[in-house]
Amino acid sequence: MIKTKYDITLEIDEQKFELVYVNPSKSKQEDFKKTFETYNAVIEEVQDKQNEIEFLNTQISLNADLIDTLEDKDKKLKALGEQRKSIDKLKTLKDELKILGKKELDLDVLSKERFTICITGDGKEKLIKAIEDKSINYYELMDEIDNLVAKAKEKK
């Protein structure tokens, strides 16, 4: 027999919550996958910008050393102009990264979405209130719920 629902009891500080873990439907899985892919694209963009910033920082540092050694005024002015462009580009990248940082993957957001999709039962609303009151993050909560579901699967 294949089970798609698991009755679990979650305990937080001596308080018990009777919940039902439901395997998400195909459409819910697709919705979650789209959300994850959106976050994943942002993560990749953030990593690319961080790599570019690291490269520019190194380049600016090396160019500063080179500029100090130049004696020809024309070459020095040209190098300073290039250095200025690199610094401007660095500032632009940092500003873009700041904006992306607000969108960056938040595991708690994804875990909350998964909680919403997979958890039902009489204790769900009380649990949501307890989560807020006790400042529990959804990532840790879903990790605990996954452990409870794994144990429920072993029992069958």
What features would you highlight for this structure?
single chain; 156 residues; mainly alpha; three-stranded antiparallel sheet; 5 helices; 3 strands; elongated
Write the layout of secondary structure elements.
Blueprint: E1 5-12, E2 15-22, H1 26-69, H2 73-101, H3 107-118, E3 119-120, H4 124-134, H5 138-155
Antiparallel strand pairs: 1-2, 2-3
Helix pairs in contact: 1-2, 1-3, 3-5
What does this entry show, briefly?
Helices cover 73% and strands 12% of the residues. It has 156 residues and is mainly α.
Estimate percent helicity.
over 70%
Strand content: 5-15%
Low-confidence segments, ≥5 residues, pLDDT <50?
none
Task: Return the structural class.
Answer: mainly alpha
Total beta strand runs: 3
What distance lies between the first and last C-alpha atoms, to the nearest angstrom? 9 Å
Widest beta sheet: strand line-up: 1-2-3
Write down the secondary-structure element order: EEHHHEHH
User: How many domains would you count in the coordinates?
Assistant: 2
Largest sheet: 3 strands, antiparallel
